[in-house]
Write a structure and sequence with these properties.
The protein is of the alpha/beta class. It has ten helices and twelve strands. It has a ten-stranded mixed beta sheet, with helices on both faces. Strands 6-7 form a two-stranded antiparallel sheet. Strand 8, helix 5 and strand 9 form a beta-alpha-beta unit. It binds nicotinamide-adenine-dinucleotide. The site of nicotinamide-adenine-dinucleotide has 20 residues, from loops.
Length: 337
């Protein structure tokens, strides 16, 4: 209850629409009496030599200390001599798995009504290792790194998640017929972990076939686990199945149990500062954070209020075909609590 000691969580409002949607989260959490005390951190205006990026050392320490956080979108400033903000977070906090639940929102009609799947993306290596170079003029090379350690770690997380959430099946997505060594090792690790979970059905699906199956009938899948690049693409495909980037939450899982929830969309500079952004994705990310903290009653309360507001249809933001401002939509959710 709100009378007990509040739990500290880090909040990165982020750039562009970030502060507007973060305000919405803060207001709704407060109205729902969520026992959380936010430690707010903004992206710095100059490079912090300790992180080699615009992210301050203090903000990273805050996440490490609290173990949980919520992150708005961050726009990485263009220029040399610093690291991408999201990459810095991923590396420094060892955020090895990106988890994205994708489910149909009742009352918001899309092509499918019955989407309920989870994508789990390996987040530290693969094609995103940043190892690209020119071999000779006209020939470049990019290294895709797959390690046994990172593959086992993300596979373990996927099966653990499936079991903990009463899911029945884990599908490993791959292209091992072509990428025999790299995706081959990824699959081998998934198989090893699968053996420890006999109660969960394990299958392997080639990525091209997976895309076809997803758009034809998303109900064919349950939990999907995959290397970095495939995960980047498939998770956006899945977001599209349920209504787009304004709606989909995600959570990054790091070493030592860190959970940093974030909306999957960017800073939306085209609508920033205009009170037009849809806060749903960040709100549902906040809900995921509450579940991680075992605050299930509060999570349920807020999630229901969001879904009921959208289903009712009176207050929707422009991306969902409505004309409500961010603040009006936020107030409607508070009224539904
Ligand atoms: P974007 O997601 O910011 O915008 C794409 C489109 O979706 C825009 O038309 C935008 O108005 C709309 N949109 C996005 N979120 C919305 C919301 N909550 N409500 C209503 N409409 C929304 O993608 P972009 O334009 O490619 O990227 C802009 C900036 O964000 C770039 O600097 C990029 O690097 C950064 N970015 C950050 C993250 C992150 O922090 N995780 C992710 C993606 C992009």
């Amino acid at each position: 209850s709100s009378a007990s000691t509040p739990i500290r969580a880090t909040l990165f409002p982020g750039d562009g629409i970030g502060p507007e949607i973060a305000d919405s989260v803060k207001q709704i959490f407060q109205a729902a009496d969520v026992p959380i005390e936010w430690e707010e951190h903004y992206v710095g205006t100059e490079i912090d030599p300790r992180t080699q990026s615009f992210l301050t050392w203090e903000s990273l320490e805050s996440v490490r200390r609290n173990g949980v956080g919520l992150k708005g979108p961050m726009a990485t400033p263009i220029g040399k001599g610093h690291r991408s903000l999201n990459l810095t977070l991923r590396k420094e906090l060892n955020l090895y798995a990106n988890v994205r639940p994708c489910y149909s929102l009742p009352g918001y009609k899309t092509r499918y009504d019955n989407v309920n799947l989870i994508t789990i993306r390996e987040n530290t290596e693969g094609e995103y290792s940043g190892l690209e170079h020119q071999v000779v003029r006209g020939v470049v090379e990019s290294l895709k790194i797959i390690t046994r350690q990172a593959s086992l770690r993300v596979a373990e997380y996927a099966f653990h998640y499936a079991k903990a959430h009463g899911r029945e099946r884990v599908s490993a997505i791959h292209k091992a017929n072509i990428m025999q060594k790299t995706d081959g090792l990824f699959l081998k690790c998934c198989r090893e972990v699968a053996e420890k979970y006999p109660e969960i059905t394990y299958e392997e699906v080639v990525i091209d076939n997976c895309c076809m199956m997803l758009v034809k009938n998303p109900a064919l899948f349950d939990v999907l686990v995959m290397p970095n690049l495939y995960g980047d693409i498939i998770s956006d495909l899945c977001a599209g199945l349920v209504g787009g980037l304004g709606l989909t939450p995600s959570c990054n899982i790091g070493e030592g149990g860190i959970a940093l929830a974030e909306a999957v969309h960017g800073s939306a500079p085209d609508i920033a500062g205009k009170n037009l952004a849809n806060p749903t994705a960040l709100l549902l990310s906040g809900v995921a954070m509450l579940r991680h903290l075992n605050l299930h009653d509060k999570a349920e309360l807020i999630q229901k209020a969001i879904l009921n507001t959208i289903a009712e249809g009176k207050h929707r933001t422009a991306d969902l075909g409505g004309s409500s401002k961010t603040t009006e939509f936020t107030q409607a959710i508070i009224d539904h609590l």
